Protein 1
Amino acid sequence: MKILIKKGRVIDPKNNTDDILDIYINGAVIEKIGKNIKEKGDEDAIINASGHIVAPGFIDIHTHLREPGYEYKETIKTGTLAAAKGGFTSVVCMANTDPVNDNKSVTEFILKKARMEGSCRVFPCGAITKGLKGEELSEIGEMFDAGIVAISDDGKTVKHSGLLRKALEYSKIFNIPVISHCEDTDLSQGFVNEGMASLLSGLDAVPSIAEELIVQRDIMIAEYVKAYIHLTHISTAGSVEIVALTKKRYSNISCDTCPHYFTLTEEATLNFDTNTKVNPPLRSEKDVEVIKEGLKNGTIDIISTDHAPHDLTSKDVEFNLASSGISGLETALGLSLKLVHDGVLSLSELIKKFTVNPARLLKLPYGELGEGKTADLIVFNPDMEWIVDKNLFLSKGKNTPFHGWRLKGKNLLTIVDGRIVYREGTI
Amino acid sequence: MNWTKKDLLEIKKLTKEEILLILETAESFKEISLREIKKVPTLRGKTIITLFYEPSTRTRTSFEIAAKRLSADTINISANTSSYVKGETLKDTGKNLESMKPDVIVIRHSMPGAPHMLARTLKSSIINAGDGAHEHPTQALLDLFTIKEKKGRIDGLKVAIIGDIIHSRVARSNIFALKQFNTEVVCCGPATMIPPHMEKLGVKVEYDINKAVIDADVIMMLRIQKERGGVSYIPSIREYACLYGLKKTHLEKAKKDVIVMHPGPMNRGIEISDEVADGEYSVILDQVENGVAVRMAILYLLTGREQ
């Protein structure tokens, strides 16, 4: 397929590009980027991107595709459709499937399914421990050979410090990051932030220190064994401060946060809407401010979605009993662009957190636009207003607290490997 | 003013005017229970279901008597006899009950927000009869009614709430109610049983019961919520009784006309001594009596609201 994208504002942070340019794609590769590329007449599609942004395809390092095992919540097919719609050309899927992705058969299954049915690239994340039980290491080497790009027991913290140490040491053999879900479950026996949310609702509380203690512990262990640590979905001011301090002396560390942690505060939980139940919980206004500050000053490297689709029944119950998570792939761009509209980040800085930085973390050859590079790219409009309608989600998970929100900024076109996998009617 | 809300879910969403309306309406209903024939036809033809997922003596009986004195038909469902034990979700139970056209569903549940979920789903009026550690609005309203009856006012009073504050829906509802008036509220208990940021609700925090009771007009005692893990917050019940049990000597530090309240059930010898529970300052049984009048008022207002 040959595609010509005309007159878009091309922003590629990796190559310091920000200009009105044309892009010519031939097959899976970007053949040419330049001013006024002439039509050859053999193009299969000519896209008029005038007034829009052309960026490298986004990479989500934290997605739950739910397959195998929870196909009633999401499948690789529907999850990657949602990803493509949201502007993601690559997603990392977490290991908490059933069976758990703790061995190469599951890794191979996911990759095979993704090749057959996926609308975007899928990179499996292997479990650190067998069955996510926190007792013994998974066969990380075999999974690495099969194609995992990171290891994580996401959803849980590896509680045993000695075992985490071994995982961090072992990860060095394959040069893959350990992605840590930071939660001291001795302290976090609850459902909402300890503060006004727990005080007013009477719901059991999750204090900020439940996250921060593990952030600190994991950093100390990683630093001790000189391994790479990535802290995922950090939500508190204290976590940002710890990471910022660490970065001054230790470079093998990075972290991400999710749109809901810089968009919503704990106040959203006060009406007991289970769509606001996430783990870690929505935090205080001060936390949200510091998270934004961390995004601005570079302490937080990456924005991930923690896309956690659920079936209706998992959410349509008492708050205590509801599953945690937000179906986030289709709202991430619109919510994150608010950071640009509010002057927290420049467009280029925002795109970096969705492209260059995740690609660097996972050592993926994507996340940039360049002649000879793979044609994974998106066209979005940062100013187009739209109203979130969960019923129009391509994800099976309709669990969003943003239903009915007016967002500014929308993905219009997604190209993966030179193929158009998503296209809005307006472009 | 007229009542407009479909449900009574939490005190913190009520205005001061709404609270006063309930209290005034209750005053006019109190007399009915003193008649020889304790029944008026006001709610004839209305159906009221009490749906209790937690044990209760006072509240459930109080609601049932209140409804019956107003001539409503009542049906009581408790968790161990409901489809809950067969795995039916709360929402489905609610929808099924609604198919039988009740006017009001009174729900008690161990999980905060359970009544809110029903209220969002159903057209029937929902009354929260206690949802976990969140709120117990009718208890706070009957407490206010009792305070007003005994003291002649609510404004200007000092109220000490003592005990397992963190797990107490009664404390939360009472704080929200009392702070609608010009009151000084002191919350007292072991530091483990006082939630962080408590002061943000406009109350004082005091760990020493001897200080908390000084010049108090009202002392409200709470039991340890064993069902919410309260016991693990203290070294032993014995130590708790020593440090936080209300004894007669404490009352000497309070105002001369102090009243002692307890939402029940009491654990005698733990949070309250016999001599205080049965003593001249105790209004614990008045609270129970007033509970019927307050619940009659609430049922009346909700079913007769302006649609």
Protein 2
Amino acid sequence: MANIPYRPDEQVPPAEVPDVHPPHPHTWIGRWVFSQDAKYIAIQYSATAIAIGLVALVLSWLVRLQLGFPDVFSFSAEAYYQFITMHGMIMVIYLLTAIFLGGFGNYLIPLMVGARDMVFPFVNMLSYWVYLLAVLVLVASFFVPGGPTGAGWTLYPPQAILSGTPGGQDAGIILMLLSLILFIIGFTMGGLNYVVTVLQARTRGMTLMRMPLTVWGIFTATVMALLAFPALFVACVMMLFDRLLGTSFFMPTLVEMGEQLSYGGGSPIVFQHLFWFFGHPEVYIVALPAFGIVSDLISVHARKNVFGYRMMVWAIVIIGALSFIVWAHHMYVSGMHPYFGFFFATTTLIIAVPTAIKVYNWLLTLWRGDIHLTLPMLFALSFVVTFVNGGLTGLFLGNVVVDVPLSDTMFVVAHFHMVMGVAPLMVIFGAIYHWHPLMTGRMLNEAMGQIHFWVTFIGTYAIFFPMHYVGLVGVPRRYPEIGDPAFITTPVDGLNAFISIAAFIVGAAQILFLFNIAWSARNGRDAGGNPWRAASLEWQTPQTPPRHGNWADDLPVVYRWAYDYSVPGAPEDFIAQDDPWVQQTAPT
Amino acid sequence: MGAANGTNMTVILAFLVTIIALAFWWLLQQGVMSKPWLETGPMEEAAGRSGFPVERLGLGVFLVVIGSLFALFGSAFIMRMDLEIWPSLTLPPVVWINTALLVVASIFLRLATRRSDTRRLTRDTTIAGLATGGFLVGQLLAWRELQVVGDGLTSGPAASFFYMLSGLHGLHILGGILALGVLIARSGGDPDRTKLNVGLCATYWDFLLVVWIGLLLLFMGLANQLLDICRTILT
Amino acid sequence: MVVVIALVVVVVGSILFHLLSPWWWTPIASNWGYIDATLVITFWITGFVFTAVILFMAYCVWRFRHEPGRVAAFEPENRRLEIWLTVVTGLGVAAMLAPGLVVWKQFVTVPDDATEVEVFAQQWSWSFRLPGEDGRLGTSDAALVGPDNPLGISPFDRFGQDDIIIESDDLYLPIGKPVKMVLRSVDVLHNFYVPEFRAKMDMVPGMVTYFWFTPTRIGEFEVLCAELCGVGHGHMRGFVQIQEETDYQAWLQEQRTFAELWEERRVRTASSDPEQ
């Protein structure tokens, strides 16, 4: 406890922050397997997420083979639905959520707020192992008779648990639901850590308004996730009861293939409300950390403070709060009461305003900056392009009546891939290029990075921009093959083939990226302590990569916000957060 | 679409609005209106956060998550009820004994937080643990009685919800008993630590008692009456 | 300055693709031209914002690229600019939302003279029911569905007796008359979707949903299921034939009522099963 020295000349009052040194492991297993170090857990989380993400990548290739070349590669409908379901579920939950919160959250929160570790390291470790178990259960569903569920990632009952859907009457759906329940339990363990660490373990001087936006984004997303994931939990438990024990929570009187089932009285709409009560905040659970991280990337690499920091913080918090009252915009044509459309369209479009403010502030951060076109900056710029594109198409789908012709078409698929798939992935890539030097002490290879960036940026845009028009033509989603119906006046086959080829190339570029990570961890250029000359606290550790416990004997003391770049009169173009430098002459 | 639209998320929304309002109120005290670029120097926090043990805050956040979980179940219950009028369950009488046991457990844990000598602390916590164990056994008896009178799991939505919710509540209680067991086993150790842990257990028990009473109100058909009132107001 | 060029190419390419590519919505065949109009307004506003934002970003990247001696400005915030931008954004959003809500009001308000037509979905085919001479659909229940009553119509409801049943065949509708599509499913979620009509709505087992439209063009239009309903989802197609009133009446005369089918099926069941 209490070992920050008292220096009257710096006006630092006696320390009150409890500085608890985390227990140091003594065994090999304690250090490398059951590690309680948040940084190591972060890497375990990320590696697992990327590994299962590769499965999703392969699945997306298979989906694109079917859609692009239906005459050559004709998978069965069962297989196709299994591909899209598992691809969607893995990407949304097991990759994006896990890597932003479990990966970046674990790595960056303690370092950025000046803590030695998460406040409950043991629970944090459990969080990872429960997550791994969830992933393994998910993977197991590929190997059970009947295969994984093919109910679509939304898992809508009744079809999700009936025999007309792959895995519905086999083990597939059961394993999927169990895996989600495990994921939620694991996430809750981690989430408690992230929230309490931000609230209680900030070092001295690190007021809330001095935290980098990355921490704000991850923190708000975690709070949202803690409140929203229970909705998925409830939906999963109730569906498991319906499937295994014969209750009728979501199941009305049904006739399946001419046969009366023993269900009765339930409503599938109840499931949809529960699912989207989680599902919409989930979009922001992924987006808010991305917003935060991209703000920091732009600021560091444009050598300029984030424009309108206060507004950015408020926007994050307000978006987080508003995202809980927009869920039913996923259900405009679900058969819910039509008057809800007025309410949810209005709330949905209101949320566009704080989101737009964030975009403006990113642009105004670039304005009059000193823009270094490093790889993290390139990815940040491409994030803005894809996010603005995907966000604007969201205004089509959020505006209830415009959604009517477009919902359940490929337009929706294009929209959410652009805004929730590509845009956050761009941030993940940018963040890995940015923080890899901190994690390993070595820079990622620039040439491979450039190839990766250009293929990914141009490629993903070439995949998803034209896809909107496939939907505009009227092609519904979740059709393995549209055929040649009369409403398609200009065939979309050529466009689909083009999209597929682009998808294969983009996918291949990701393999290069993973190779780059592996290769550069040994052969990369030495990064030094602070290669980007960043001001935030994570780059001010005594060692790079930071050791267990992060800091030296004393915790750092924070004297300023995280964005003192190009301060007039300062000796350098950045002032680290723990640098007590003050302007000698008051600015006039 | 008609009457059966099942969009009643009032319980969870009320819960969330409360949480969000509290969060905003707290944030406003944290200087979110300040201009950090003008304030250089080793500032102290406005609120004295250092005195507050992380474990208490961790438990608080965890209880919010559980609260959200049960509020969502409550929402699901009401949404489901909006679709179909169902007779509320006739609760077996043993449920009231169980409730009394849970109250006893809560009281003894509260008493234990005031004990300073280990022996009496161990005695009180053990009594609380036994009472809670009695609660769980009683809940199993309640299930059994329900089955005997023909209210099995699939006999109707009221019964389905009762088994599911009392089961999940029971699982949370079971987790609490495990933690309490560890606490009793280690009660000879650091007294400050023990005191803190007893306090955590007491809070957890109080919370689960409140949840259980909320569930009882749902099962007793209070939700029906609330819905009726809502319908009258709307029409 | 490859990045700047790439950003400009993305913007210009997107606009050119939008304007020049042949992929656009299929010609409309219903009264929902307002939906198309709202969509076009949204395209204009969002297209303008996208172009402005990305070109501004490209300009910033070009103008403020790193060069020796460049120092970034220290500019924490600018209240006036931020308020101004917020207001303009709010106006743009309102300009899209307002017409959208007005049209939605029309979409959910069924005209009094609309004829009810029931769409009945099951894995994976479409059936239809017309109200018959009394103009009313009889009651129905999934629990009544069986081999002799595939649509689950109550045999004891007199309004149902003259209902016209079209089992797994095309639906004919007269042009120019508003129709309220009453949607019913007995197994899983489906969605009645005809691209030319613009409107669509989920069909939910256990409840009845609806939407309305007025056909405005004669022809054959394909019905697709737009809500994943199992492995046959992609093959769940049907046809709606929009006809002149006289052709429609001629077709209608050939159709059979529920009472006729019910009688016939019961006779057939009885004769094929001599023990009963």
